[in-house]
Design goal:
globular; alpha+beta; 3 helices
Length: about 70
């Protein structure tokens, strides 16, 4: 069975910018904010921006990064 799975389809259903604190709830727990913080510190996370004291991601960049790391197991 072939799966057509594309995370970028979520782009239109999510806000244009997502704070790191809300990534986990908006993406159904697929990745935690703590894991993102660790990956960011290693330079392996998605492109990010700082708004005051908050770290945020442009949704399109976050989903593209996540899709590159996704493996579909059959």
């Amino acid at each position: 069975m072939k799966h057509n799975f594309n995370l970028s389809e979520l782009n239109s259903k999510l806000p244009p910018i997502i704070s790191r604190d809300h990534v986990e709830e908006l993406l159904g727990g697929i990745i935690s904010s703590k894991r993102l913080a660790n990956l960011d510190s290693l330079g392996e996370g998605p492109k990010r921006m700082r708004v005051g004291r908050k770290v945020a991601y442009i949704t399109e960049d976050l989903l593209e990064w996540l899709e590159q790391r996704t493996k579909i197991l059959v």
